[in-house]
Amino acid sequence: MSVAKKEYKRITTKTLVDMKSKGEKISMLTAYDYTMAKIVDNSGIDVILVGDSASNVMSGHETTLPITLDQMIYHASSVVRAISRSLVIVDLPFGTYQSDPKEALRSSIRIMKESGAHGIKMEGGKEIKESIKRILNAGIPVMGHLGLTPQSIYKFGTYTVRAKEDTEAEKLKKDALLLEKAGCFAIVLEKVPAKLAEEVAKSLQIPIIGIGAGKGVDGQVLVTHDMLGMTHEFNPRFLRRYLDMFSEMTGAFQKYIDDVKSGNFPTEKEQY
Ligand code: KIV
Fold first, then answer.
1. Fewer CB atoms < 10 Å away: N or C end of the chain?
2. What is the chain's pLDDT, residue by residue, as a tens digit (272 residues)?
3. Does any domain span residue 63?
4. Which pTM does this prediction carry?
5. Which ligand 1 atom minimizes the distance to the CA of 209?
6. Residues 117 and 41 in one domain
7. Active-site position among 165, 180, 190, 270
8. Hey, whose CA ends up nearest to atom 5 of ligand 1?
9. Cβ distance 4 to 49 under 8 Å?
10. 223 and 188 in a common domain
11. Which residue has the least CA distance to atom 3 on ligand 1?
């Protein structure tokens, strides 16, 4: 059992801020369904992100843009039914918060009411400040997301490292401070130089959770299907694979197929 699992019965947004002040790193992974969420929660993870990466991982879309609010709510409610300890945060999908703060609040309320999740995550800084304030005023915790923000992939044109140039790095620092001042309880920083991420983490009170942002931040997040090696065509430098599930599962399926074809399954013990 992990050290964190012993110490905290239930993770809240306050727990995460306390962890940062104690210098304890925060662990976060994605989940989109009941069975995976049950295993991840039972392992002692601090935060489960119902990411809009479900659009890629679960539905096979090239980007995160197509996933809908109804689909995110379906994934999130499956995850919430599985957990007993982790904090569950849900991505507001593309097109459900960018147009105006009232729509952003309506989308967030639907997620909270219909899934039972504990908070939402939104991509962007200054541009979405009013929406963040409105959502927070309704009592809904907000996690920010800066750096590589996949919902803006067609603006960036590429998934390469963000904020390498001074101008973008300065904007990112300002945005991070703005998110903290607005009341966000944490920020995900995706694919930015490690030095910049560390500087941001040191300058803020709220936790910075990195993905491809180096070790100088307050926690790490990975997409579960990537770290388990279930996806194998995606190989960014930051991704550590803890299993090769693609090969393991392929081997198991092939063995099953062989057993069925050869009549080796089922045996007498496996029938009624
Ligand atoms: O959607 C997602 O899984 C995410 C993580 C990569 C942080 O936003």
1. C
2. 565 555 789 999 999 999 999 999 999 999 999 999 999 999 999 999 999 999 999 999 999 999 999 999 999 999 999 999 999 999 999 999 999 999 999 999 999 999 999 999 999 999 999 999 999 999 999 999 999 999 999 999 999 999 999 999 999 999 999 999 999 999 999 999 999 999 999 999 999 999 999 999 999 999 999 999 999 888 999 999 999 999 999 999 999 999 999 999 999 999 99
3. yes
4. 0.96
5. 7
6. yes
7. 190
8. 51
9. no
10. yes
11. 51
Distances (CA, A) of 138 to 109, 120, 142, 222, 233: 8, 12, 11, 29, 41
Q: Does residue 150 sit in the same domain as residue 250?
A: no
> Are 232 and 258 in the same domain?
no
> Residue 212 Cα, ligand 1 centroid: separation in angstroms?
11
Atom of ligand 1 nearest to the CA of 123: 8
Looking at residue 76, its amino acid is A
Count of structural domains, the chain:
2
Query: Whose Cα sits closest to atom 2 in ligand 1?
Result: 51
* Distances 157 to 51, 52, 123, 151, 238 between C-alpha atoms, Å: 21, 19, 17, 11, 20
Contact 111, 73 (CB under 8 A): yes
The tokens for 121 are 């995550």
- 180 catalytic? Reply is no
Measured in angstroms, how far is the CA atom of residue 30 from the centroid of ligand 1? 7
